[in-house]
Amino acid sequence: MGRITLLLVVIAGMGSLAGCGSGASDEISGVINVGLSDFVIDLSEDTVSRGLVEFKMDNKGPSVHTFVVFETDLAPDDLPTGPDGDVAESDAFAPIDELEDIKVGSGDKLNVELKAGNYVVICNLPGHYRQGMAAGVTVS
Ligand SMILES: [Cu+2]
Q1: Under a CB-based contact definition with an 8 Å cutoff, are residues 68 and 60 in contact?
Q2: What are the pLDDT digits (tens) for 13-57?
Q3: Please, which of 24, 76, 110, 135 could form a disulfide with 41 given CB 3.0 to 4.6 Å?
């Protein structure tokens, strides 16, 4: 085995080790059932283990909703808002993931890699956050 080949083998080995250590596998570490209604987000769990977390939507209607995930230490009812009372997304306050157009009866799923920390999930259709569509999730 030449020196370059050996080096490549070592690098490949390090890569797969790093993959394990960061928990970047496809295995789901936790499932949270998300009940959506006018105008409540009802989570089956508000704490979950870090890793790949599956959010399972159950939109009970009557409206279409969205599901937006922020990593933040702010309280669910204390996110930055614009003049319309909707959460103001910006470079400094950007969602880490989201699902749009969640229809009534939808079984849509959102899988998000979450590290330990505090998260807030909201619906950001006009007026929905202001009327109460926000909930906190702690990842440990
Ligand atoms: Cu909504």
Answers
A1: no
A2: 444 444 444 445 579 999 999 999 999 999 999 999 999 999 999
A3: 135
**95-112: average pLDDT:** 97
Closest by Cα among 65, 129, 72, 73 to 99: 65
pTM equals 0.81
Q: Is residue 4 part of a domain?
A: no
What are the tokens at 1?
């085995």
Q: Which of 118, 5, 106, 97 is nearest to 57 (CA)?
A: 106
Task: Report the amino acid identity of residue 55.
Answer: F
Tell me which residue range forms the domain holding 60. Answer: 29-139
Ligand 1 center–CA 28 separation, angstroms: 26
End-to-end CA distance of the chain: 44
Domain count of the fold of the chain: 1
How many angstroms does the Cα of residue 66 sit away from the middle of ligand 1? 6
